[in-house]
Design goal:
Layout (H helix, E strand, L loop, with lengths): L1 H15 L9 E3 L5 E3 L5 E2 L2 H6 L2 E14 L7 E13 L2 E2 L2 E13 L19 H7 L4 E12 L3 E8 L17 E9 L5 E12 L37 H6 L6 E8 L5 E10 L3 E10 L1 E3 L2 E14 L2 H5 L18 E12 L2 E10 L31 E10 L9 E11 L11 E12 L2 E15 L16 E11 L1
Parallel strand pairs: 3-6
Antiparallel strand pairs: 1-2, 4-5, 4-23, 5-7, 7-8, 8-9, 9-10, 10-11, 11-12, 12-13, 13-14, 14-16, 15-16, 16-17, 17-18, 18-19, 19-20, 20-21, 21-22, 22-23
Length: about 475
C-alpha cells in the first residue's frame, strides 16, 4: 500500500508540473473509456490522408492490491503503460486506424503462482509469464480500414465493438477488441443498427487474436488454456479439439439495434449466433418519466439463449460440472432483469434485480455482461443457472461543492444468491464496492479513479455431491491514473 500511494503522488506531481494548456482531442467517460472529441477532417489527396491524421496518446497506470485472506494468495500488482492510436484523415469517405498498447508490470507474484491472479490479471499475459517468465504485454489491438458516409460506416480488420454482449470493457490496460467486418447504419429514423461478422477476438490479457468461442486444450501444453478464449464467462467444455472433431468453426454473427422513435422510451435488441453452437436474443426497453425535479427511469431486459448443439458438446455448466442441472446436456437458458433509477440533481439511486432460469448457464465470454447495468457488481459472474441477484447503487456528483469540483462517487451493494445444490456454481456472496473518480479542472486530460471492494462469501455451503464450496470472499483496492495527450 505504501508503494501504491508513493507512486500515485509521484505520478500526480509529475503530471501537474506540465503547465502547457493541453489540446483536448479525447476524453474519458465515467468507465475510463476513451471518447474522441477532435476527429480527423476530410481531405482531397492521398498525401493529406496521412499527414492530416491525428495521434491520440494515453499514459495509464493501474494498481491492484488483492487480499484473499487465509485462503489463496495475497498480492500487489501494477501495470504501467498506455496506448498510441493513429487515425488518418478521410479521403472520399475512406480512412485507417491503428492502435498500439503496452502494459509493463510492477510488483507481481512468482510465475509459479500466476494461476492465483484475480484482480489485476489483465495487466499481463498469464501464458507468457508461465512459459517464458515474460511480464510485459504488448499488442496491436486496433488495425482497421474504414469507409464512412453521413449515415453508414463499414470497418474491416481489428476494431472495437460496443453491443449488449460484445464490448471493449476497457477498464484495465488494453481493451477487448475483435477481428472481422462491421457495418453500422442510421438510415432509419431515430434508429441505429449495427451488424458484424467476427472471426477472432483479443481478450484484454492477450497479445494475439484468438478463437472467439473455443477454449484451449492442447494436451502437449499444460498452459494452453490461456492461449484461446479463457474469459470468466467462457464455457470450458467448448474446446478447440472438440470443435475440430465436429468440423465446427467458431464464428459470430452479430445484429444490434437501438430505437428511440417513441418519446421517453428507448428500445434495444441484440442477436448473436455462433453456427452449430448457440445463439442468444436480448430485448430491452427503458422508459423515462419526470416529476418536477425528479426523473424516474424503469428498465427491463429479457435474454433467451438457444442451444444449437453446444450443450451436447460441453454440457450445461460453464465449468463442466453438471451435477444438479435439470438437463445436463442442454444450454437452453433464459434471464430476466429489471431496474429502476431515481435521478434528482447530482444524485442517482438505482434498484436492480436479475433472475436466471434453472436451465443451462449463459455463455457470454465477449466482455458484454448479461446482467450489466442491472445487478452485476465488480468482477462477479452472476449468470449461472438458477441465480438471483439484488443490487442497490447510488451515484453522486460532488461538483457543486467548489472544493470537491470534478469528484464523482459510486457505491454498490449486491446480494448474489447462487444455487447451493450445484457444485459447479460458486457459493453465495455479498458485494460492497466504492468508486471515486476525480477530474482536474486545471488539467482536463488527467483523471484518477480509486475503487475498493469487499466480497463476503458463504464458507459453509455443501453442494449436492456433498462437497464444500470454495469460500469466494476477498477484498481489493484499485487505483488508476490516466493522462491523455
Amino acid at each position: 500500500m505504501r508503494f501504491l500511494l508513493i507512486t500515485f503522488f509521484f505520478s500526480f506531481s509529475f503530471l501537474q508540473a506540465q503547465t502547457d494548456e493541453p489540446v483536448i482531442k479525447h476524453k474519458l467517460n465515467c468507465n475510463m473509456t476513451i471518447q474522441y472529441i477532435k476527429k480527423p477532417k476530410k481531405v482531397q489527396s492521398i498525401k493529406d490522408l496521412l499527414s492530416e491524421g491525428i495521434f491520440y496518446g494515453r499514459i495509464r497506470f493501474n494498481n491492484f492490491l488483492f487480499d484473499k485472506g487465509v485462503v489463496g494468495e495475497n498480492y500487489y500488482i501494477a501495470g504501467l503503460g498506455g496506448s498510441l492510436i493513429y487515425k488518418s484523415a478521410y479521403l472520399n469517405g475512406f480512412s485507417a486506424t491503428t492502435g498500439a498498447y503496452t502494459s509493463q508490470n510492477i510488483g507481481h507474484m512468482d510465475s509459479s503462482l500466476v494461476d492465483d491472479y484475480r484482480a489485476g490479471k489483465d495487466v499481463l499475459n498469464r501464458y507468457n509469464v508461465a512459459t517464458s517468465n515474460e511480464y510485459g504485454l504488448n499488442s496491436l489491438a486496433l488495425a482497421y480500414g474504414e469507409y464512412k458516409t453521413r449515415k453508414e460506416q463499414i470497418k474491416i480488420g481489428r476494431f472495437p465493438l460496443e453491443t449488449l454482449l460484445l464490448k471493449t470493457n476497457d477498464t484495465k490496460m488494453i481493451p477487448n477488441t475483435f477481428e472481422g467486418i462491421y457495418f453500422r447504419t442510421r438510415s432509419f429514423p431515430k434508429t441505429t443498427i449495427q451488424s458484424a461478422y467476427i472471426t477472432k477476438q483479443k481478450l484484454r490479457d492477450h497479445n494475439q487474436f484468438h478463437h472467439v468461442l473455443a477454449y484451449g486444450d492442447d494436451s502437449s501444453d499444460p498452459y494452453s488454456k490461456w492461449t484461446q478464449n479463457d474469459d470468466a464467462g467462457m464455457h470450458r467444455g467448448l474446446t478447440i479439439s472438440k470443435l475440430a472433431d465436429r468440423n465446427i468453426k467458431d464464428r459470430l454473427f452479430v445484429l444490434d439495434a437501438i430505437n428511440s422513435s417513441m418519446d421517453d422510451i428507448t428500445f434495444k435488441a441484440s442477436y448473436i449466433m455462433a453456427p452449430d453452437l448457440l445463439s442468444s436474443l436480448i430485448l430491452e426497453s427503458r422508459y423515462m418519466v419526470e416529476f418536477d425535479e425528479l426523473r424516474v427511469m424503469p428498465s427491463i431486459r429479457y435474454m433467451q439463449q438457444f442451444d444449437n448443439g453446444a450443450g451436447s458438446i460441453g454440457g450445461a455448466n460453464l465449468k463442466n460440472n453438471t451435477i444438479a442441472y435439470k438437463d445436463p446436456e442442454s444450454l437452453n437458458a433464459a434471464l430476466i432483469a429489471g431496474r429502476i433509477d431515481f435521478l434528482k440533481g447530482a444524485s442517482t439511486l438505482r434498484l436492480g434485480y436479475s433472475k436466471v432460469e434453472n436451465q443451462g448457464d449463459i455463455v457470454a465470454p465477449w466482455r458484454g455482461f448479461p446482467t450489466a447495468g442491472y445487478s452485476r457488481a465488480i468482477g462477479q459472474t452472476n449468470w449461472y443457472a438458477n441465480t438471483q441477484t439484488y443490487m442497490l447503487r447510488a451515484d453522486y456528483d460532488f461538483s457543486k461543492a467548489e472544493i470537491l469540483k470534478g469528484l464523482r462517487g459510486v457505491v454498490r451493494y449486491a446480494v448474489n444468491d447462487f444455487d447451493d445444490n450445484k457444485p459447479g456454481v460458486q457459493a453465495d456472496s455479498n458485494v460492497l464496492s466504492f468508486d471515486i473518480v476525480k477530474r482536474y479542472e486545471s488539467m482536463p486530460t488527467l483523471h484518477t479513479k480509486i475503487r475498493t471492494a469487499f466480497i463476503n462469501g458463504d464458507n459453509q455451503t455443501i453442494a449436492e455431491d456433498n462437497s464444500k464450496k470454495t469460500d469466494p470472499s476477498y477484498n481489493e483496492i484499485r487505483l488508476e491514473i490516466n493522462y491523455l495527450f
